[in-house]
Design a protein that fits this description.
Length: 119
């Protein structure tokens, strides 16, 4: 698999899938409050949608469709960050929460760059 200089996977399809998987692992140990359960449901949906829309962009039928799907991936990444920021974490989860926020921030920037370069 190709690597970037900072050893992050270059394959965005794989990278977005790993992000969604990490989110799912992270939420397994969240405190079981009403708020965390509802926030986790939203986070699961948005984190999975990041990669699902990227895969659809790869199979797009036109440049306009490609750009729209990438914009949706970016939107879902921003939403994932929002839910991550809201969720209450246990003490031992804070490091992973910050790492997930960092990863989704990077994905948001990558998708934004793809949109700009595609115009």
């Amino acid at each position: 698999m190709p690597q970037t200089q900072n050893s992050k996977p270059y394959d965005l399809g794989e990278r977005t899938k790993k992000f969604a998987q990490r989110v799912r692992d992270y939420i397994k140990d969240l405190p079981k409050t009403l708020a965390s359960i509802e926030d986790a449901k939203q986070l699961i949906k948005s984190s999975g949608s990041v990669g699902a829309n990227y895969l659809e962009a790869e199979e797009s039928l036109s440049k306009k469709d490609f750009i729209m799907r990438i914009k949706i991936s970016r939107k879902e990444a921003k939403e994932s960050r929002y839910w991550l920021e809201l969720i209450e974490s246990k003490e031992n989860q804070i490091k992973e929460k910050q790492a997930l926020i960092q990863e989704v921030t990077e994905l948001t920037k990558i998708f934004g760059s793809i949109v700009e370069k595609s115009k």
